[in-house]
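Let us begin with a simple case.
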Amino acid sequence: MFPPFGFRPWRTAPLRVPTDRVLPVHLLGDAPDVRGIVMRWMVRFDDVLDAEKLHSALVKLLEMKTWRRLGGRLRLNQQGKLETHVPAVFDPTRPAARFSHVSFDMALAEHPIASQTPRPTNGPSVHAVDDAFRALSASAASGKIPETLDDYLYSDEPPLALQVLTFRDATLLCMNCPHAMMDAVGSAALVSAWCKVLAGREGEVLPLSADDPIQSVSRIKDEGGDEGGDEVGGEEGQAVLKAKHLGGLGMFLFAVRFVLDMLFGPRMETRTIFLPARSVKALQREAAHDLELLQQGQQIDTTGRQGTPFVSEGDVLSAWSTQLIARSLGARSTRTLAAMTVFELQSRLAAFDVRRAAYVQNAFCVATTVLAGDDARGLPLGRLALRLRASLQQQTTPAQVRAALCDLVAALARTGHPPVAAEPDSLPVPISNLTKARFFDVVDLGPAVVGGGGGGGGDMGRSVPPGKPVFLQGYSSSARRNPLLRNVVQILGKDLEGNYWITGILSPGTWAEVHEELEGL
């Protein structure tokens, strides 16, 4: 049967299995801007790993009582809300996770696609990766890998898919998961538990929380309660960004400008930057020098102590990225930039009791800094980093987070979308820093190592312990480019050697700025 005027057959969800346990998807996971995204992670190891051992440990974790939720099938209820249907028993017909393994009788460097996998280099480098990864993953898959939410809703597909590609000297591990189930910090909690099971330390695995602290915190705020006791600066209970929330004509102009950018602006290109530790230190030194000049004996730093202001590596890298995007607009551009920094909530709200439970869900919010074009382009790196840090600190106190969540929940209920804090002419610059997820620290597949490798060695040779990742990359599972992803910066994190990996979805002009900047580092 075909839909009216359509080209694709209708899709229907499988009949509900009476024995399935039905659970709601957490609030932020069901947000329209989140639930349509299907993520795929690829991780490279310079070791040969036992694929069956990895799969068995993952299944064993998902069969633990509280962790079974992650094997539930995604469905829409009659109200259009996402829920997960958890099988009473996982078996070959309804597995806890999809699994496939392909072994290549060759070195990783000999494979035409896998050889493109980035590795640390002596100096800064830029890599085009996502299209090659999709092609490699698809070529080795057993059946079609889900790319959209519909691929889950209209099938009996489990949310998690593990794909292992082994070579004579390396392993590539791919994990597919809908964003509706978890964010980066949630993913790290899942991987941490998986690694413990792999190492035979099941007793250390925390129970998976079924609670949704985001919903409870926003409800407390709505009811006039206080989840943490902090007061909000200015009007009691009001987020500092509320005055910047666009609505009416302002929102219309912002949307029109964004649509025009999509239609007539430059086509975005996805690439990944490798920044060696010494390059990061060079940027840190530049920022510190800028702030020493600013200090002049009177400046108070953002921690409240007298002395030179402090900015972190994350602040500096966020400022550096924003500056390069601003410069690509040209010296005559008067357009403002809205640096939208995603921050995690598990460490910021007491409702998340991370010592007693694992939270594999979406728990994040956005802090926005609106910058004049001249400031984004021309401020010294240290001063721009300080601006971003001060803004982030102002917006991430427990009271401010609760106020922002209240506004977010209200906006989702009213419009289906989060509020936008910006000027009508602002160029949005989404920035995600996943360093707090600590992927390079958390991932430890040492117990599954069955052979040493080297993965081709690279410029820097072997530098990590067996079973630790050399490179990781998160990207959309869909081969279709998302036109909404523009000027996006994702700091993937810091590896064990202090090097950073940064993915950008940027214009050719910005990439030209990146290459020019890297030549001087």
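The second case is a distinct protein. As before, the sequence precedes its structure tokens.
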Amino acid sequence: MSFRHAPATRGLIYVVVAATGWGTAGAVAAALYGRSGLGPLSLTFWRAAGGFALLLAVRLLRPRPAQRRDVVRPRKRGAAACRVLATGLGLTVFQAAYFCAVRSTGLAVATVVTLGSGPVLIALAARLTMGERLGRGGVLAVAGALGGLAVLVLGGDPVGAGGTVRPAGVGLAVLSAAGYAAITLLTRWWGRQGVAGAPFDTSMWAFGICAALLLPAAWAEGLLPHADDLGRTLLLLGYLASVPTALAYGLYFAGAAVLRSATVSVVALIEPVSATVLAVALLGERLTAATVLGTACLLGAVGLLVADEARGMRRLPRTAVVSAAAAPAAGSPAAAGPGPGSRPVREPRRR
């Protein structure tokens, strides 16, 4: 399997497949809860460990161009290790909290809250820590996201069927989004400093760190599945590690390399849509009016951020636009995510 840069049409297909695959991860987790005996931390461990093993195999087997060997200074090697460790820590929070949210409040709400609040947290944090201008669209997006979260938390039916909105589950989804936002902001800052590593390698090692960090907690929770229906459990675990993890992220990197970040962000909205469809059709979750309204507010907030990004790209000089479009989008686990939420790095104005 090759992850080389693809033409734009093929790249679009890659990102569509990746986003659809990400949308199935929570459904697989929900299907495994109960009968398999595995909890959210154990599932996150097996996803990370399996994804790391598969990505490592791809890295070892794919042809690599001959490169000039340079002497790597210990300081640079240490900085690279710190970057990978920070990415792994954020990925651990992102993935583990997401699976905990799926178990607590259902697949549809957990996915929408995570992906809807993530880009908004990124926009707010970038304004506070990096001085990025929020803009009118960003302000409206933040207001819309907060309104959507309020509707979900306050309007949920406490006695409803599966997929009931529970404040604790919404909180876990926001925590997951915070882990995703932290990695995205760090990746953006490293890119500005000119020290960002290769997205594929960073993601691969981040999954390895995630598995190592979760091993003690997963062991305490119950690392091994029940013997009952073991074949089905192993099949679903294999799917979780391969399709929405190794395959999806590999396709994402290949597609994002040739697409504008705004395009990638819009296509990534397939993930919450596909997760919601699976939640209703296969898991029997019930969507109340409050859930639908809150979901619409959150996805609308993401749409406002994407539109604001597109306007910002049109204002940039052509050289800066080419530079921003060529850079890897920051929503993957190198920037972790189930989906992208990055914005272009604007060149500072010369005074």
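The longest helix spans residues 74-105. Residues 159-163, 318-351 have pLDDT under 50 and may be disordered.
Keep these points in mind for the review questions at the end of the chapter.
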